[in-house]
Amino acid sequence: MSRLTVIGSPAGCNVPWGPLPHVALTHWGDGRTSFGRARRAGFSVLGMTWPPTRTAALRCAALLLLAVSVAGCKKPNQVDEFPLEVGFQPLEPLLLTATFPDGTAGDPHPQGLGPIAQASTFQHWGSHARGYLHAPLLKVYEALHDPAASYIHNDAGATTRAGDDTFGVEPFPVSFVVHYRNPTPIGDVRFDVTYRAGPLEGTGAAPLVIGQRYQKTFGTGFIDVMEGSLRAFPVDGAPEVTAVEMVAWLQAKTRDQATCDGTLTDLFGNLAAKLASMP
Prior knowledge:
Elements: E1 3-8, E2 14-15, E3 18-19, E4 23-28, E5 33-37, E6 44-46, H1 54-71, E7 78-79, E8 112-113, E9 117-118, E10 125-133, H2 137-143, E11 166-167, E12 174-184, E13 187-202, E14 207-219, E15 223-235, E16 238-252, H3 257-277
């Protein structure tokens, strides 16, 4: 039966378990297409025993590219600088459209986030949000010492880590690194995120304003930007309520504005859950 076979493997294309093998796609005269392992490298046309139609040739080439794409060319790990001098200051001032949640007659400061404001640039997606936590500032600061209050969620809405968290990595009151492992159909995507926190005003024993900052510092090159910050302070006239201002930046393959917005929702939820578990 007549056939058209195309084989190839782009240079430098690796999957998590090693180099991508040369793949072969064969479009048969009866319309079937088969996929298998090839013996030689390079893009070439073999076994052309019939003049293929333009549709057949394009279909075979497209399927080859799709197969390579699904296999997942793996970018090398990269180190992302996180200068000590930025400390745990907020990433940027919040937009005015990121407002606190509306109060009610019974609760002028309801726990939760207000509307998330989109603050994207040409370099990354961006999200801003303000909210309230029903806990005093000192308790919020205590909660931020636990990495579980700041875990980043994966596509399944959970957190998968590659080993234990590492503490005391930088000269800040709160300092730790979380080693993330995000399972995917083509293997694990791994990256490290470094967290810092401390009092922006006051002391550790009696903070007036606290800050937290995080950034991806090592791992997959598919994440170009992953940064965020939190600023927290007591609500005037309601010291048992803490106001928070949150910022998230994200630039990663297959991610969008909704993913960035979801980061703030997840992080706020983590912190609220941690506070609820504390005495």
